[in-house]
Fold this sequence. Notes:
The protein is an all-alpha fold. It has helices at 2-49, 55-66, 74-94, 98-116, 126-136, 145-166, 179-196, 211-231, 242-250, 255-279, 288-299, 305-349, 351-361. It is globular and about 65 Å long.
Amino acid sequence: MPILSNLSKLKLVLQKVLPNLKVTGKKCIKVLPNVAIPIIIMSFIQKYFGVQNGPMGIVLVFICMFKVNQIKTPESYLKMSIFLIIISVFASIASLNLMTSILLNLIIPFLIIYLTTTKGKESNYFVYGYEYIMLQSYPIQIYQIPQRIAAVVVTLVLGYVFMKIYNRNHKFDKDLVCDGDLIIENFEKIKNKIRKNRNTNIKEKISIKDKRVRFAIRTAFILWITCIFMDRIPDRNIRSYWLPLITYGCLEIDYQKQKDKLLAQIGGATIGIAIFIVIFHWIPTNALLVFMTMAFTILFSVENDYLKKTIGTILGMSFALPTFGEVGAILLRYTYVICAIGIVYIVEHLRKVVRKVERYLCL
C-alpha cells in the first residue's frame, strides 16, 4: 500500500528528527543567556560609547560561548583581556588609513594565530581574529582610540561578572593552560630564539614545515588581500567587512575541512537568501535585537555547517536590510560570498606562490 509505505517512511524520519530537535532545544535554552546578556551589553556600549564600539558586544557572545575556561581564575581572564585590548588598539590603527591597513593586516593576523595556537588547540585563534576584523568594520579616528579601549574594558568586565555568575558550577580542567599563558609562552619562545640567533634565522621555531605556521601565513595573506580590497571601496556604507569575515569563517588548518566549509558557505548562502526573501517582511526594524538573539542562539545550538552558514547569512542580511533594502542586501551578500570563496580557492591552488611568500616571511 503506497499510503502505508509513505506513513512508515514519515515515521522513520520523525524518529530521527524529533530526538535531534529535543537536543537542539535543550542546547538553545542553555545557550540563550550567553547570547542575550552580551547583546544587552552591546546596547549599553552603543549608547554610552558610540555605535562604532558596538561590535565588542558581538565579540563578547563568542567569548561567552568559547572562552568559559578563561574564567578559571581572575588572572587567566585578565591575561586574555589584556590581549584583547591590545588587539583592539591594533584593529583601530589598521582602520585609520590605507597605509596602516597594508602594514598591520599582514602582520597582526599572523601573530594572533601563531601566538594563540598550539598542538591540540589549532582553532583557539578564532575569537581573537574575529575581534580584530569586527572592530575594523567601524573605522575610528586616532583620538577615539582611548574611548574604544574604555569600551572594550567595560565590555570585558561586565562579561566576566556574567560568566562567573552563570558558570558558577562549571567544572574546569585541572591541566588547563589559559590562553594568556599560552600567548606569553609562544612570545617568549620567539623572543629567546631571536636573541640566540640574532645573525641567523629562526627556522628552528618558525618553520614552514609546521602546519600551524603555514596556516597562520596563509590566513594573514588572505585577510591582507580582503581588508585592503575593502579599504579601497569609496562608499563607506558598504564597508561592512563581510568579505574578510566570510573569508575568515571559511578558513581551516585542515584542507578537507576547509573544502567542506566552502561548500557549506555556498549552500548556506543560497538557502539563507531564499529564506530571507520570505521572512524579511516580517522583521520589524525595532525587533532586530530580538531577531539577532534568536539567530545567534540557534547558530550556536546546531552542529551542521550548512545550517550554521544559512543562519549566518540570514543574520548578516538582517543587519544590512535597513541600509540597503532587500535587493541590495541580497546582491551584496552573495557577491561577497562568491568573492570570498574565490579568493580562498585561488590562494589554495597557487601553492607555489604561497610557498615563496612563506619562505620570504620565515627568513
